[in-house]
Amino acid sequence: MQGLAVVLFPVLLILFALAMERVEFRLRRLTVREQEVQEFLDKASHADVATLANEGLPRALARFHLRRKRGVEDEDEDDSQTPEQRAS
User: Fold this and answer.
1) What are the boundaries of the region Disordered (predicted)?
2) Which of the residue ranges 4-18, 46-60, 72-86 would you say has the lowest mean pLDDT?
């Protein structure tokens, strides 16, 4: 029984390390620089903040950067409403 544990422990340890590497890769991809967060907080519209609350920071930053790239400062009323608000 101890021989089986000696053989299986390194294999399980390697599998655990590979799984943690995949988790770390995904987390690294989702990280945001402090400068981006500060810019978002300084210049975000109400729609951007609503996106942050509903969908999280990566989606809100993507929407914010897209809006800034287009050069649009104020969005339409329809864009600032959430899908739940439009349905009612």
Assistant:
1) 69-88
2) 72-86
How far, CA to CA in Å, does 7 sit from each of 10, 20, 78? 7, 21, 62
* CA terminus-to-terminus distance, the chain: 65
What's the CA gap between 87 and 49, in Å, rounded? 20
In angstroms, the CA 35 to CA 41 distance is 10
Q: Whole-prediction pTM value?
A: 0.41
pLDDT tens track for 3-51:
888 989 999 999 999 999 999 988 877 777 778 878 877 888 888 888 8
